[in-house]
């Protein structure tokens, strides 16, 4: 997944580090693997939130298409069988 990894230095609260190190997952996979996964999950969640915010801005709070397209909502549905 990661072709080129770059070592970095971060500062973390001692109590948070102790709690992290005490976890089974960190003991099994290592700090770096767990922190890489946490960063990837954070970025994925952030992208999802940004897409959701973009849709909300584009379509408004109502989720509709606006007055210009009123009545067309049913046109995109499959007929009932």
Chart the SSEs and their pairings.
Blueprint: H1 14-22, H2 24-29, H3 31-59
Notes on the structure:
The chain is mainly alpha-helical. It has a domain at 21-58. 54% of the residues lie in helices and 0% in strands. It contains three helices and no strands. It has helices at residues 14-22, 24-29, 31-59. 0% of the residues are buried.
Count of DSSP H/I helices: 3
For the biggest sheet, the summary is: none
Q: Nearest-angstrom radius of gyration?
A: 22 Å
- Class from secondary-structure proportions: mainly alpha
Give the rounded overall mean pLDDT: 85
Q: Classify the helix fraction into a percent range.
A: 40-55%
Number of strands: 0
Measured between the Cα atoms of the first and last residue, the distance is: 45 Å
**What's the SSE pattern?**
HHH
**Which parts are unreliable, with pLDDT below 50 for 5 consecutive residues or more?**
none
Strand content: under 5%
Shape, principal axes of CA atoms = elongated
Short characterization:
The protein is mainly alpha-helical and 81 residues long. Helices cover 54% and strands 0% of the residues.
Keywords for this entry:
single chain, 81 residues, mainly alpha, elongated
